[in-house]
């Protein structure tokens, strides 16, 4: 069985009857919960063969653990009249039974094999055999393809729109601050200290938003230019 064993791994057994009589067969295993065998029993005509699929269920493979799983294929000449296979096996005499034992082997693909498969799947690079008269142009240290340029332009537009929105919000907040100042001045019971704190809060918030927007625009514009 070849790994990885994260999914069902199937191995086929080919059983051939070289005799001139019908043969009954049965497949047994020491780990019946780990394997699914189809068909696990049947009859093979003279000179014919049958394919038996052995399906290993997924499990956590440990390379340090030696497999002790075994299979045994039992065969017996089929009697003239077969009515019940279970009765045939129960009444079979030990000297009439023939068996073949098989030991399970687990193999994991090597890392080198994986790398070779990946390299083989890669297309060969194209080679340009045409001669050039002049010297080859030096590659740019940094190059942007059309997709990255388009993304940067769209990001700049989005940031400009956010700046305009922040400016509009700043104007609204400034108007709101003026309105609150007028209300506070008209309110005789208002405290001068509370009024000063309210004015400072209304003026500092728009300024902070403008600074943050300027930092974002400077970062993306600098990235686009470089």
From TrEMBL:
It comes from the Eukaryota. Its main location: other. InterPro entries: Ig-like_fold, MSP_dom, PapD-like_sf, VAP. Residues 114-143 are annotated as: Disordered. The chain crosses the membrane at residues 205-225. It is found in: Cell junction, Tight junction; Cell membrane; Endoplasmic reticulum membrane. Residues 1-107 form the MSP domain. GO terms for molecular function: FFAT motif binding. It is a single-pass type IV membrane protein. Residues 149-176 form a coiled coil. Keywords: Acetylation, Cell junction, Cell membrane, Coiled coil, Disulfide bond, Endoplasmic reticulum, Membrane, Phosphoprotein, Tight junction, Transmembrane, Transmembrane helix. One of its GO terms (biological process) is neuron projection development. One of its GO terms (cellular component) is endoplasmic reticulum membrane. Endoplasmic reticulum (ER)-anchored protein that mediates the formation of contact sites between the ER and endosomes via interaction with FFAT motif-containing proteins such as STARD3 or WDR44. STARD3-VAPA interaction enables cholesterol transfer from the ER to endosomes. Via interaction with WDR44 participates in neosynthesized protein export. In addition, recruited to the plasma membrane through OSBPL3 binding. The OSBPL3-VAPA complex stimulates RRAS signaling which in turn attenuates integrin beta-1 (ITGB1) activation at the cell surface. With OSBPL3, may regulate ER morphology. Belongs to the VAMP-associated protein (VAP) (TC 9.B.17) family. This is Vesicle-associated membrane protein-associated protein A. The lineage of its organism: Eukaryota, Metazoa, Chordata, Craniata, Vertebrata. The gene is Vapa.
